Amino acid sequence: MNESRQGLKPRTIALIVLGSLLAIIAAAWGTQLLLTSPEDIAPLQVTREGTVLAEYSMEELRDFPSRSFTQFGKSEEGSGVLDVLAKAGVTEFERLTVYGLGIRDDGVLVLTRDQVAEDVLLDFANRGTVKIAGPDIEWGDRVRDVTILEVE
User: Fold this and answer.
1) 59 with 8, same domain?
2) Do 92 and 118 fall within a single domain?
3) Are the beta carbons of 60 and 151 closer than 8 angstroms?
4) Residue in 6, 36, 44 with CA at minimum distance from that of residue 149
5) pTM over 0.70
6) Terminal-to-terminal C-alpha distance of the chain
7) DSSP secondary structure letter of residue 103
């Protein structure tokens, strides 16, 4: 019997399924980007022991002094985390926990006070949200779509 009468081979079926899954994932990401508007983005909260000390919209975060650095061949630019914390009344802390939506990463990063240097930023992403970035923060450790900066 020839191949056309036997039907599709398992490898061909697997490639069709894989291609379909990749198309669905790409469509979902594209839709998420198209549907994200400034009104859809929750404000960033600065908290301590469950108390919200301050909330900042993405527009308000853009009003902070901007800093930048280059890492992994890409320029990162945004508000300094220490500036955002200071505006919320936080001048001393031992630990900073950064929480994000956890869609494209773990959604949590814990930094000691010593790790939060002047060049640790809330980098403005193309999606209209911010991610935590710093020269000493590894690419895989970054938290995107940051929602809460919790100090202890």
Assistant:
1) no
2) yes
3) no
4) 44
5) yes
6) 72
7) S
- Which residue, chain included where needed, has tokens 């802390």? 93
The answer to whether the beta carbons of residues 16 and 23 sit under 8 Å apart is no
pLDDT tens-digit readout, 85-95: 999 999 999 99
Which residue carries 């779509």 as its tokens?
145
Among the residues of the chain, which ranges form H helices?
3-6, 10-35, 58-62, 81-87
Using CA atoms, how far residue 57 sits from 64, 69, 92, 115, 136, in Å, is: 11, 23, 23, 25, 26
Instruction: Tell me the three state secondary structure of residue 46.
Output: strand
pLDDT tens track for 138-147: 989 999 999 9
Cβ proximity of 111 and 98 under 8 Å? yes
- DSSP letter at 145 equals S
Q: In this structure, are 72 and 85 located in the same domain?
A: yes
DSSP string, 112-144: EGGG--TT-EEEEPTTS-EEEE-TTS-GGG---
Q: Please, is 146 exposed, middle or buried when counting C-beta atoms within 10 Å of its C-beta (0-12, 13-18, 19+)?
A: buried
